């Protein structure tokens, strides 16, 4: 029925309105059509550039170092938690979604003492309770916080959390996976020991490399903490300092593509430029979806311009699988929700997507709703 050509990326693939991996530029993919040895000087120079540029993006020159971790983002989070929290330490995990839950599980598997402070997925952490827990439990050495909790798309108050943790004399570990590169988190203003992110989110590289921006003085205390060989950030950093090389086979193509992606990030105006495009995308998406009756889970002031959660329409004619398939046929891939507080689905604003793509996605949503004979995306028609 759709005679129109489906929307596509520069290389003809469906557009990924998802939390990652994401649509990347043709030039980033093109950067991968070569082979390098892991000791090749050309590759090692690109790798060094990538690690140095990440420290600069963090505003952390001189104070921090980027330690890369082969694998997806979770590998970097696990490396960060198990390398930084000592065996006799205790980690307080702030939870308002799946990524906070995952961090708690990582710490528990590693045999670390833990505590958690949980709020519902549409609610930021309770800062008063955080202060009180740190005052009451002197055993807590570290606090873990998620910057943008991708489960809902909520922007957590990372600067306020960091100030409370620093004032209480404890150490902060940040999962900035879905924010780093698009939402400012400047190490000169926000005090943390370590921050984890990855190649394939707002930096718009391909998946395969996680990294942790580590405070030099804190990393120096991490010898012997790690519970695994491969995820030992102290050892990985030490090998780099000594040899300039990875201990084990690096994902070379991923790193070279990330080098290209970071060049394109700079050309777009760095964190400010990337963040502006994502904010423009989010505004077009949210305004357009609301105009069709859809309701967002979050109010505007809690919504990060990364991924948007929409309540599932209540019209019984709305069948999510048919909605999903109809959008996919038109070249747009969306994402199911994984909330416990509400039945929902998600649409991402990140990756090589521009406001025109979001307008295209809205037109496709309208078409599919018409096909399903759903006149309104909201809960309002439930009573009809
Ligand atoms: C994507 C993401 C991760 C890492 O997930 P992987 O599937 O391992 O790449 C961790 N934390 C947050 C907040 C994320 O959005």
Keywords:
384 residues; alpha/beta; Aspartate Aminotransferase, domain 1; Aspartate Aminotransferase, domain 2; seven-stranded mixed beta sheet; three-stranded antiparallel beta sheet; 16% strand; globular; binds pyridoxal-5'-phosphate
State the CATH topology of the largest domain: Aspartate Aminotransferase, domain 2
* Uncertain residue segments: none
Secondary structure: number of strands: 14
Ligand inventory reads: pyridoxal-5'-phosphate
Q: Would you kindly provide a written description of the structure presented here, covering whatever features stand out?
A:
This protein is α/β, with parallel strands linked by helices and 384 residues long. It folds into 2 domains: 15-24 and 270-372, Aspartate Aminotransferase, domain 1 (Alpha-Beta Complex), CATH 3.90.1150; 26-267, Type I PLP-dependent aspartate aminotransferase-like (Major domain) (Aspartate Aminotransferase, domain 2, 3-Layer(aba) Sandwich). Helix content is 38%, strand content 16%. The chain has helices at residues 26-30, 41-57, 73-84, 98-109, 127-136, 158-167, 216-219, 233-243, 252-267, 270-291, 320-329, 355-372, and strands spanning 15-16, 64-70, 90-95, 113-118, 142-146, 148-149, 154-155, 171-175, 194-198, 209-215, 307-311, 332-333, 335-336, 344-348. A 7-stranded mixed β-sheet has the order 2-10-9-8-5-3-4, sandwiched between helices. A 3-stranded antiparallel β-sheet has the order 11-14-13, covered by helices on one side. A hairpin with a 7-residue loop joins strand 13 (335-336) and strand 14 (344-348). The longest helix is centred in the C-terminal third of the chain and has 22 residues, at 270-291. The protein starts with 14 loop residues before the first strand and ends in a 12-residue tail after the last helix. Pyridoxal-5'-phosphate binds at residues 19-20, 72-74, 77, 99, 146, 150, 175, 177-178, 198.
